[in-house]
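Appendix B, record 7
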Amino acid sequence: MIKEKKQKLMQSLICFSCAIVAWRYPSGLEGTEFSGGWLTGRLLVMCAVGSLLFVAALILTFFSRRISAGIALTACLLCLPLYLYFTAPGPYRWVFKGEYSVPLQSRFVWDTGSVIGMFLLGIAVFVCTRALLTADPERVSVSP
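Structure tokens (predicted):
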């Protein structure tokens, strides 16, 4: 029972951390030219939806850990493209051709906020995958 509480606490803490980063990281980009782009605007919307899903996963962790883990994994998939865009703008421009208003300075850039976000997403994927793969102690029946 204590192990399950620790796992729920760990999952809720990582969901909370990811929600904070996903909410704060792109907040300076709202209302700028970045939010109106055909690609970048969609990346911002995906990250906003991901941050809301992290909050939902945080709340659901205490009721159903597996459902919460599935929601958190979906949120990870939605937030990752924005972090990758700021870390690797060159490959994005190679894949998504178009007219960009800012010239490309470098193919890969060290952006501390996005690296922290990707690191937290990696931890979240590990914790949530583990939650999905472990047996639910309430549903496991012991045969005499």
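Remarks on this record: The chain has five helices and no strands. The chain has one domain: 9-133.
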